[in-house]
Structures are given as C-alpha cells and as structure tokens.
C-alpha cells in the first residue's frame, strides 16, 4: 500500500516537472528574437475586418474605402521612436490618399493630444482590443501593417526608423503579382 502511494506521488511530481519544463521551453521560444520575426501578417493574406469609431464618433473600417490603409500598432512605444515619427509625418504629408490609423490595444485618453504634440494630428486614433492585436499577430511595437481596399495585407513589419516606414510604403504600392514573386 505504501509503495503505491509513493509511486503515485513520484509519478505526479514527474508529470508536474515535465509540464514546467515544456512551459519553460515555450516561454524561451516565444521570447527569442527569432519569434518576433514571425509577428505580423504575411503579404497577400486577408487582414482581419473591423469597424471602430474614433473619439468624434466617426466610423472607420478595415479594409479601407480608399486604396490603402496604414495601421500603426504602437500603444506606448511610439513616442520612444523619434525616427518612426518622422517617417509617419512624411507619409501623412506626402501621401494623403493613404488612411493612417493608430490602433490602440486599450483606451488611452492622452493618445490624441500626444499625437498632436508630436506633429501627427492627421492620424486617426482607434481603440481596438488585445484580441484584435492577436488577430493581426502583433505583440511588439511600433508595428506597421498596410491593408488595401480588397482587405489584403500589402506590407507588414516592425519598424524602428523613418526609412523603414518609407520602404514599407513602397512595397505596399507594388502590384500584387510583384509582391507574390518576391516571396
């Protein structure tokens, strides 16, 4: 009888140790730099559809009514990346046909005043959700995803510099067949 109890306790301890080891490996794998490279969406994939209202009550949708939409996933990170701000300012100034939206994970009442102070008053601020971020496969920011009017992802990348914003916009403007050939 005692042997059965000892055996059961040892088996339970080994099962717990195995589960903890698997969780530890999963945590290391998900936090490695290589895993961030898999964030976002592949060019040509169908982007999640959504309809969200801005602070003025205006309804915004994805896919966009216009030809191209840039969704900026940044939350608190955007103010830390001055070069990205420059790239976004340039995009807003030179490409008025592209709708630029900052998609927040949760409500943030200081986002719009902060953007205005940073020279990005033309950017629409929308409040999404952690689930919407997960639908786009975005964990870190600032992350940019271009979506066309058909709802297809035209460009997707983590960005740190203004030239990356510009390059991603150039890639988003390529014909779909050219994007498919480059993969």
Structural description of this entry:
This protein is α/β, with parallel strands linked by helices and 183 residues long. The protein folds into two domains: 2-31; 40-182, Glutaredoxin (3-Layer(aba) Sandwich), CATH 3.40.30.10. Helices cover 43% and strands 20% of the residues. It contains seven helices and seven strands. It has helices spanning 2-31, 33-36, 82-94, 111-117, 130-135, 162-172, 176-182, and strands at residues 50-53, 59-62, 68-73, 98-104, 124-127, 143-148, 153-158. The strands form two sheets. The protein has a five-stranded mixed beta sheet, with helices on one face. It has a two-stranded antiparallel sheet with strand order 1-2. β3, α3 and β4 (98-104) form a beta-alpha-beta unit. α3 packs across α6 (162-172). The relative contact order is 0.19. Mean pLDDT is 82; it is low at 26-36.
């Amino acid at each position: 009888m005692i042997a059965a109890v000892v055996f059961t306790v040892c088996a339970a301890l080994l099962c717990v140790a195995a589960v903890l080891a698997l969780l530890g490996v999963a945590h290391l794998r998900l936090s490695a730099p290589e895993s961030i490279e898999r964030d976002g969406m592949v060019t040509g994939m169908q982007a999640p559809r959504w309809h969200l209202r801005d602070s003025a009550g205006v309804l915004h949708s994805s896919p966009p009514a216009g030809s191209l939409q840039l969704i900026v996933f940044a939350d608190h990170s955007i103010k830390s990346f001055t070069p990205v701000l420059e790239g976004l300012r340039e995009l807003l100034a030179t490409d008025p046909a592209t709708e630029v939206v900052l998609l927040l994970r949760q409500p943030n009442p200081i986002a719009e005043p902060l953007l205005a102070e940073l020279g990005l008053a033309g950017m629409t601020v929308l409040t999404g959700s952690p689930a919407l971020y997960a639908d786009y496969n975005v964990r870190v920011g600032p992350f940019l995803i271009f979506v066309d009017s058909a709802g297809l992802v035209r460009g997707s990348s983590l960005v740190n510099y203004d030239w990356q914003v510009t390059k991603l916009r150039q890639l988003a403007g390529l014909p779909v067949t050219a994007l498919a050939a480059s993969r």
